[in-house]
Amino acid sequence: MLNKYDKRFSLPHKILIMQLLSRLSGQHKLSILGFYTYVLKYLTYSQLSIPSILAALAESVHSLTPPDALEPVIRKLAHEFIHPGVGSEVVAAGLNTIREICRRQPWAMEEDLLGDLIEYRKSREKSVIAAARGL
Fold first, then answer.
1. What is the pLDDT of residues 1-12, one digit of tens each?
2. How far apart are CA 58 and CA 109, in angstroms?
């Protein structure tokens, strides 16, 4: 429904629908694979409502979610949120979201990406250090 009528809904309505789908998916262990491809286009750190989108994304993951569907999402999070060109709050939010996704579905993380993200333990910012240690 979101893909078909994407132009009709405003951003707050899209986020509400994302939150509804994520709660249904997480609580009832549903596999809505189109949800993850839809969320990909809203995963930018300059997005206005990114905290609620990241929370909905993490809430939608459960143990039965296919890891193949989550790999592009984790890669996009790592490339958009976790690099030296953004602020420490953005890096911490990205690391915390990846941690929550991997806590719910551990097979979604690639080994080399995990090694790269763990290197942020040596950062100077306390929030980034705490988020990297959580991984």
1. 777 877 888 889
2. 14
